[in-house]
Amino acid sequence: MINMTRKVIVTTLTLALMAPLAVACTKGEKADDNQERVLKIATNMGYGGNYEYFTQQFTEIFEFANPNIRLEIISTMDEKFMNGNIQPGEKMPDPMEKLKEVMQGDNPPDVVMLGYEQLPEIIESNLLLQLDSRITKDKFDTTGIVPAVIEGMKNAGGGKLYALAPTFSSSALIYNKKMFQDAGVDYPKDGMTWDETFDLSKRLAKGEGDKRINGFSFTTQAQGGDLFYGMQMYTAPLQLKMFDDAGEKMTVDTDQWEKVWAKMAQLQKDNVFPAVADPQKQMNQRFDQNNPFAYDDFMSGRLAMGILNYGQIQQLTNANKNAANYKGFTPIDWDVVTIPSHPEAKGVGGSIYMNGIMGINAKSQNPDDAWKFIKFINGDEWAKLKSRSQNMLVARSKYLKPTEGLDFHMEAFYNVTPAPIEDNSKIYRNNPNIYQVQEIGRKLFADVLQGKITAREALKKWQTDGDAMLKQMKENPGAPLQPMMNQAQAVPAG
């Protein structure tokens, strides 16, 4: 009886939320005929096994507003790929090739949902319809879509729109106001360069050992995570590539790579970043019983500035709100500014990802309903409803407001342009072991930070060892790689 009552309440609330959307969807449009039509939506994003989540997120409101349109969800993700049931030596199924095959089949989907990094390959294969003419004809407002999304979509299509994304995830630079006040340093501001940020870090760092306060980190996580991966936010806008477009030759033995690695090593030496701790000390600090937020440098008061994902704000908000329940925790007065950028790529930031990207299949048998669906999901009313989520950023800026009475610089999360897409997806799909090439670089970079080897010597070694591994992959695709660990050991400069 209780479950039935709960179900009635949920259904009533859902209908109450959907009613305005149904009106908005049909207002000003010609009445649809009563004949039922099918709209096929294909996705290789892994939602196939979680149909309920997919419908709640993207389709059930549209179905309510358009009862004569029946949606059919087609997952092109291979079950082996989803469940990880790949046997040793067995070639991993290629979800992109499967998606292309379905899109060009005899019974093609109308709408295609895919990842941001997959978009260029689908566009270049001429598999999506351009949306610009439909946007103009219907006077569909794209001016309210945040730069982080609309510019990212245009960049993927060479300046034209082939897809839209209703939500996105993003990061910003968070800072502790009190630490800046105590140091007599002006707060960070939007549009700073990376060098300006690093200079601020030097002015804020102080103390030793457990009392140490660090100025900046690419993450708020304890001990700064791994600088090799963290600095990818710095290198992405510079379009530094690890290997060529064919995935057959390394491209790291260059002056630009050397400049970045040498700079990071010097900044580490100048205490711009948190010190590299030994694994045991790192583990102890992360699980300090006397500090409920030991795993987070910013929340533990050990970090003045750090890169924070929007989804982490709720955690910080809850901690501040319940500070009295956490022994030794003092509420943090904070705000955010845009992620720093390079002078040669002003306003271009990393760590932005579009969610729910959808386009119209070039072979769609029902392109009008496909556009109607995409227009609805990316429209004003849908954004208004979904903006109530605490962990989701909708693409329409007018609905991006701090929740729960908070007051912070929300624009910092979306007044940026995504870094250009480095479309290596096909290379990674064809060479699942290629991550080991990256691991060689990570180990060599650690040796550079410790002064065991110069940046250029490490990069030359990464180039040589990486080329050997790529050659091995090409000659024996899918075969287990010979261990490269010994080859990756640095030889002290000298």
From TrEMBL:
Protein name per its UniProtKB record: Extracellular solute-binding protein
Region (Disordered): 475-494
Composition-biased stretches (Polar residues): 484-494
Organism: Paenibacillus allorhizoplanae
Sorted UniProt keywords: Signal, Transport
Primary location class: other
Signal sequence range: 1-24
Family: Belongs to the bacterial solute-binding protein 1 family.
Locations listed in the record: Cell envelope
Lineage: Bacteria, Bacillati, Bacillota, Bacilli, Bacillales
Pfam families: SBP_bac_1
